[in-house]
């Protein structure tokens, strides 16, 4: 069951609805036969088809073989839908269990409990899993991350996962910095291989030498202290020390723009005010 979740990226509602009829074959135009897994709709109203990998086909074949060895065929049994709270029609479900002596299809809560028990069984050999809590939906995220990080276009991954919005698939995918660099480098190599070789020049030491020469030439124009210098801090408040800017001050017989230095203007007005106050207080 865990391998089916990991290799198909199914929701647990979709897993319990898998039947023997979900496994089908498709013959391509070249005669190749491809095994398909038809997934019943759970959140959307459309069913989707997943081309089965060799590993997924092997897991599914093992499940069917166990049913046939024990019962001669895949038993037909009912299934209780916990979300709809109704009994579904009997079908040959792949994942079944015996409940009160009767064959029943596995429930979604049963899937969750099996995953939790499997995670607890790993703790004696892998103590680092003691503080990690696994859920069936985690395997769906692993499936999406594995698809996209190995070069599959994200819109194809969205179709395999049954997402109607590609942004939902982006939320499932964990992309690491190394994966971004590696995939982009591979893309550049593929693009360069398809273009004529005359469009690209082979990198030489000349470019590195010229770059270092230009850098040293720029460094010789000014001392090292000047290159690393930063603007000096000032104790003048920001509300007073405004930068110089041009203001439309009309002169006699002229309407041209004249630059005004605001700190100097403030100092002059302050000095003029002090002189006026002194003259008014003198006898």
How do the helices and strands line up, and which of them pair or pack?
Blueprint: H1 2-8, H2 12-16, E1 23-27, E2 33-39, E3 48-51, H3 54-71, E4 77-81, E5 86-91, E6 96-99, E7 102-105, H4 108-121, H5 136-149, H6 154-161, H7 166-172, H8 177-194, H9 205-220, H10 224-228, E8 245-247, E9 258-260, H11 262-281
Antiparallel strand pairs: 1-2, 2-3, 4-5, 6-7, 8-9
Helix pairs in contact: 1-3, 1-5, 5-6, 6-7
Labels describing this entry:
about 280 residues; 3-stranded antiparallel beta sheet; two-stranded antiparallel ribbon; 11 helices; 9 strands
Short structural summary:
The chain is an alpha+beta fold.
Walk me through the structure.
With 283 residues, the protein is α+β, with helices and mostly antiparallel strands. It has 11 helices and 9 strands. Strands 1-2-3 form a 3-stranded antiparallel β-sheet. The longest helix has 20 residues, at 262-281. The protein starts with a helix and ends with a helix.
């Amino acid at each position: 069951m865990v391998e089916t979740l990991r290799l198909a990226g199914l929701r647990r509602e979709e897993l319990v609805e898998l039947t023997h009829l979900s496994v089908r074959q498709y013959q391509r135009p070249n005669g190749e036969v491809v095994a398909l897994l038809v997934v019943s709709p759970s959140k959307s109203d459309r069913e989707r088809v997943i081309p089965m990998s060799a590993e997924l086909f092997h897991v599914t074949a093992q499940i069917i073989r166990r049913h046939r060895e024990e019962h001669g065929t895949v038993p037909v049994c009912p299934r209780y839908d916990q979300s709809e709270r109704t009994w579904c029609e009997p079908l040959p479900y792949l994942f079944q269990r015996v409940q009160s002596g009767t064959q029943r299809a596995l429930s979604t809560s049963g899937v969750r409990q099996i995953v939790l028990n499997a995670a607890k069984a790993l703790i004696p050999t892998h103590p680092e899993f003691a503080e990690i809590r696994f859920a069936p939906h985690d395997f769906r995220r692993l499936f999406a991350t594995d698809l996209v990080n190995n070069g599959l276009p994200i819109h194809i991954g969205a179709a395999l996962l049954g997402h109607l919005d590609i942004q939902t698939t982006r939320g499932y995918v964990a992309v690491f910095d190394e994966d971004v660099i590696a995939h982009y480098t591979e893309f550049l190599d593929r693009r360069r291989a398809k273009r004529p070789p005359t469009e690209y020049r082979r990198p030489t030491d000349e470019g590195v030498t010229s770059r270092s020469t230009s850098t040293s030439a720029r460094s010789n124009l000014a001392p090292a202290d000047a290159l690393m210098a930063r603007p000096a801090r000032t104790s003048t408040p920001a509300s007073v020390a405004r930068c110089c800017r041009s203001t439309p001050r009309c002169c006699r017989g002229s309407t041209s723009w004249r630059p005004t230095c605001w700190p100097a203007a403030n100092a002059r007005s302050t000095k003029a005010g002090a002189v006026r106050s002194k003259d008014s207080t003198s006898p």
